From TrEMBL:
EC number: 4.3.1.19
InterPro entries the UniProt entry points to: ACT-like_dom_sf, ACT_dom, ACT_ThrD-II-like, Ser/Thr_Dehydratase, Ser/Thr_deHydtase_PyrdxlP-BS, Thr_deHydtase_catblc, TrpB-like_PALP, TrpB-like_PALP_sf
Keywords: Allosteric enzyme, Amino-acid biosynthesis, Branched-chain amino acid biosynthesis, Isoleucine biosynthesis, Lyase, Pyridoxal phosphate
Residue intervals passing through the bilayer: none
Protein name: L-threonine dehydratase catabolic TdcB
One Pfam family it belongs to: PALP
Molecular function in Gene Ontology: threonine deaminase activity
Signal peptide: none
Quaternary context: In the native structure, TdcB is in a dimeric form, whereas in the TdcB-AMP complex, it exists in a tetrameric form (dimer of dimers).
Pathway: Amino-acid degradation; L-threonine degradation via propanoate pathway; propanoate from L-threonine: step 1/4; Amino-acid biosynthesis; L-isoleucine biosynthesis; 2-oxobutanoate from L-threonine: step 1/1
Lineage: Bacteria, Bacillati, Actinomycetota, Actinomycetes, Kitasatosporales
Every ACT domain range: 340-413
NCBIfam families xref list: ilvA_1Cterm
PANTHER family given in the database record: L-THREONINE DEHYDRATASE CATABOLIC TDCB, THREONINE DEHYDRATASE, MITOCHONDRIAL-RELATED
Length: 413
């Protein structure tokens, strides 16, 4: 199709149909895996209905992005393939374009932000793309990629705003219906909207009774105001740990489909995202990036509001190890599993050992201790101890605080 997302909004927008999605599914045969569906006993108990996890984090390149990228590049004319393709991405789209191009014998150039995680940069190169680092934020990277396309004639591969991309991502909807025919609700993360739009096209054409619910991070929720306005509007300065759905404006093509076919778009907090990532790791044994865990975050936030059986789509697993470390710590704190506090005490020999004795009896695991004696806030004979503890949950946190206070310590959270 000839639609260019950089053009002004076309009238009418190109339609994406069930036939387009089925054609994409045939095209992806032998290229994209039919990823597994896993039942979650823990989430099923929480929600009160069967919950299944569609494990697209186990897809080639670690996310669903390969599907749309391959369909888009495979549909190029011979002269367009000869000119090569270019993309801009901080991670998943970059890897999807790189692998799809290599499989199709097309030269690819991928612009990535200067601060992109090194594992994602290395993986994109390993899949065969020429990587160019440019800009501090994705908007600057995107502008550089579009300028490169104008100068060289390379075809710009948009991450979500093209009918072929939407059709490719929609193949996940057909897989979900095949693997879980009894499904009543599908929950999917939303950034620009290509994935949710594609799934909705496929699912609503075959099973109009199935609800499709989109999930956005509160700090990057462009769809709720856009849906209210009836057109895509920009979200100022999106900020979230879920970089896979940190998009400032919905795509024109997916927005029209989301508006007509997706039943609801909800938002989740950063705490919910962190807790969902931790749950996926501990209970489902799945490494999932924050964007991929957003459907689980929605289930944790409003468990009683989903008609089951439910399928939650884990859309990607490409999480930077340093981010994973920070998010897990945040998730443990949000779940009451990680407690930080300060104690005011009399500075005398053996004082620290006494505190550790109280914590041992309370069965709290000490992760880190910091001892401060010189501070204008402290009296001449006073000291402060900052403690970082691993606990068993909110009730245990309360027990630890109570034990310390009963031992005579002043507790400052």
């Amino acid at each position: 199709m000839s639609y260019n997302a950089s053009d002004s909004l076309p009238r009418p927008l190109p339609a994406v149909t069930l036939d387009d999605v089925r054609g994409a599914q045939k095209m992806l045969s032998g290229v994209a895996r039919m990823t597994s569906m896993a039942h979650s006993h823990h989430l099923s108990q929480l929600v009160g209905t069967p919950v299944h996890l569609k494990c697209e984090n186990l897809q080639r390149t670690g996310s669903f992005k390969l599907r749309g990228a391959y369909v888009r590049i495979a549909g190029l004319l011979p002269e367009e393939r000869a000119a090569g393709v270019v993309a801009a991405s901080a991670g998943n789209h970059a890897q999807g374009v790189a692998l799809a191009s290599s499989l199709l014998g097309v030269r690819s150039t991928v612009f990535m932000p200067v601060g992109a995680p090194l594992p994602k940069v290395a993986a994109t190169r390993d899949y065969g793309a020429e990587v160019r680092l440019h800009g501090q934020v994705v908007d600057e990277t995107l502008a550089a990629a579009q300028e490169y396309a104008r100068e060289t004639g390379a075809v710009f591969i948009h991450p979500f705003d093209h009918p072929d991309i939407v059709a490719g991502q929609g193949t996940l909807g057909l897989e979900i219906l095949e693997q879980c025919p009894e499904v009543r609700t599908i929950v999917v993360g939303v950034g620009g909207g290509g994935l949710a739009a594609g799934i909705a096209v496929a699912v609503k054409a075959v099973r109009p009774d199935v609800r499709v619910i989109g999930v956005q991070a509160e700090g990057a929720a462009a769809y709720p105001p856009s849906l209210k306005a009836g057109r895509p509007v920009s979200f100022p300065q999106p900020a979230t740990m879920a970089d896979g759905i940190k998009v400032g404006r919905p795509g024109d093509v997916p927005f029209a489909l989301v508006r007509n076919l997706v039943d609801d778009v909800r938002t989740v907090s950063e705490d919910a995202l962190a807790g969902a990532l931790l749950l996926c790791l501990e209970r489902a044994k799945m490494v999932v990036e924050p964007a991929g865990a957003s459907p689980v975050a929605a289930l944790l936030s409003e468990p009683e509001s989903f008609e089951g059986p439910v399928v939650a789509l884990l859309s990607g697993g490409n999480v930077d190890p340093l981010l994973m470390q920070r998010v897990l710590t945040h998730g443990m704190a949000a779940a009451g599993r990680y407690l930080s506090l300060r104690l005011r005490l009399t500075d005398r020999p053996g004082a620290l050992a006494s505190i550790l004795g109280v914590l041992s009896v309370a069965d709290a695991n000490v992760l880190d201790v910091s001892h401060v004696r010189t501070d204008p806030r402290l009296g001449l004979t006073e000291a402060e101890v900052e403690l970082h503890l691993e606990t068993k949950g909110p009730a245990h946190c309360t027990e630890v605080r109570t034990a310390l206070r009963e031992a005579g310590y002043t507790v400052i959270d």
